[in-house]
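[job 4417] fold queue: 2 targets
>>> target A
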Amino acid sequence: MEPRILQLHNKIFKDNQSIVSIVNEAILKCKEIDDTNSIITDTYESAIEQANQLELKKNINSNNLLYGVPYSLKDLVCTENIKTTGGSAFLKDFTPPYNATIYNQFNQVGAILICKSNVDEFGMGGLGIDSAFGIVKNIHDKTRITGGSSSGSVNLVAAGILPFTIGTDTGDSSRWPASLVGVVGYKPTYGLISRYGVMPYAPSLDHVGIIASTVSDIVIVADCILKYDEKDFTSQILPHKDLYKNLKIINKLNIGIIDGIEKHLEPDIADRYSKCITMLQQSGHVIKHIDFSDKLMNSIKTVYSAISYGEANSCWANLTGIPFGAKFNGDSFDDIITITRSKTLGRQVKRRFTIGAYITKKENYEKFFIYAQKIRHMLVNKWNKILDEVDTILCPSASSIAPKIETVLNGGFSSTYADNLLCLANFAGTPSITIPFPNIGKMPWGINLNCKAFEDKKLLDISFSLENIFEKKGNNE
């Protein structure tokens, strides 16, 4: 499957199509999906202006694969002179005074920002229903959710509008929604993409993610942004260079699968998962069964909630309504904070802040927050031990196809530990990726792959290998 980025590159440099026409086409398609609520702020005017400027210099940039390529940023990424709302009414008019590192990196290679995509408020929501700017509707079926919190980002790729977008991933926020709309969602090893200028949710779990149509597109973007940043004190260095140039197929893999997980899947998904395993065995790969304690697995959601809510409450203590953001009058400092938060923050954020404040109170800190960290440590040790024994861990990236919006709003959907499993890569800081499995029926679904920390090249090679198997199989059916 030819990368979409490469297709656009060839249009610009081989077919001599103008960058402006490519940008205008993307803008037109964005407007056609307004009813999905995928976009918060458009940057159409500045994108056309940038395209005109890039056209003048394109002859000296023919080796730059991202030159003139349109993309979007999840609206947690700060952009100077462009509104950055975090999906919150509190920041609906906020314009940052500086750029996130990742935005500067794309500007340096001539990629063109088309829009800021919709997001669950401050990334705190896994369903795509908790943005102050509306529920994000699944591009394949507008009665269904996209998942979150990178909901707008996945939709723009799934709709064929943009070859890649940027999301974030604190528990599964790039990879779970990628499964529900049928695209590739990648979270690298912790610290490999700079978080400088990216609004936090839970810093010990937060990653920037890449969303694209193919693994090759992911790798092209990764070459641009997996770089050390001195502004991010958690930034780390990937030991591999030129990922796209060295992308390869691996013909025999030891693939770990967790025993019993199929019991936590909807029947249709259990069938797809079984077909996936059979397909890999028929292709020469070795499947290794893994025992993972149900007791530990069932703790994942609670551990994630305790740690992330506690960190979120601390990170966003600056939402006072005084230095920035929404402004409301009050008789005292505490009064201003209470009024401002009450009027502008959404239900999900208020809930998480309240639980986070309770968990981190002096009398509760040891028995809740620290205890959760201890369980996290146990989970990470188990996860890393398994990764020592196999090339990759393969698991379902979702227990079902995208649920109906009505079902979710009525409280009829709850995640299983097959969904919560994706959090383990955030707990451990290990690289993880979701890739689409050939469609069976109307709605898409994907599988998730994982490797050890800093084995991002290996993970991308494995994903590329499986993507090729799935493509051939899909074409034969």
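>>> target B
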Amino acid sequence: MTQPEQHRTTDSITDVRGLRVGHARVAGDGALSGTTVVLAPVGGAVAAVDVRGGGPGTRETDALDPRNVVQRIDAVVLTGGSAYGLESAAGVMAWLEERHRGVRVGPDPSHVVPVVPAACVFDLGRGGDFTARPGPATGRAAVEAADASGDHARVETGAVGAGTGAVVGGLRGGVGTASTVLESGITVGALVVVNAVGSAVDPATGALYGSYGSHVSYDSPGTPGRSLDAGPPSFPDPAVHQAALRRLAEAREAAAPPPLNTTLAVVATDAVLTRAQAQKVAGTAHDGIARALRPVHLMNDGDTVFTLATGARELPEGPGPLALNEILAAGADLVTRAIVRAVLAAPGGLRGPGGDFPSYSELYGGPHGANRPRSEPYSR
């Protein structure tokens, strides 16, 4: 899966033309949560979903079943706040209605019902205030930010939007993204919110699971850097790894938040896909989660993957359904790469009433094992 250099732009989901991403954060002391919106182009996108976790929190996902009537949607909401945070989709729905975007249900162009699928991660109390969670105003702020961002805008990653209070295996998690252009010219992108019960780190070496054999750059999206498809991952110095293990053990003793967590993803493409094909892409993309996090899909996970297909490019001619294969493979690869980027983009760890969550960079200093500043207290 090779991406020609001339096609590289932001290396994010917004490389799929027409898609925009916006983040919003819950304000106030004790708040550590937010909402992320992936906004489709006017006219919407074919969509699908695949839920694998045993404890999902979702909204409007049944509408995406290929057997049901809705053909296209205008936005996907990823949010913190557990089931409470699903209210943020109401703010997105209202924004879309004002612009007459949605499923037409009457003779007037304003007679629409926007279908806004949403999924949530558990971050309640991460900042210290259990009631500080996203609502309709947060969702509206996120969709407004997406709309204002423009085409092919760089996507902010790390502790932003739905990833503001995310953690992964005791480390700070967050938002990550990646994209590629296939040999056919089709663009595929992914965006993830990493908030997992499982770990992203190999306990034997300290290397990120997702760095093994993946197309992963340790650098920021859109910048040239060391790509792991050129060779094996670099391992942290053993002494650095042992220090990291001790630090994590201290963090777990200091606070043990309930392991109610989730990894969310949106895989997007500019290809023409049927809803059944889009659902297949969503299902295969879960393999990308399993490569980067261990374990996954537990009963206290809500792992959910959405697919969006804008329909700008036909699939290449091929032997029947096999033309879809390169998109299936790319989706899983990109989810893995986006998860690695989310973990690496997490800012310095946080210590506060909601727990003690160091970042990977704090413990390992990225791929080279040079430690960075220790955790800072919550400041909101």
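[job 4417] complete. Note on B: The longest helix spans residues 325-345.
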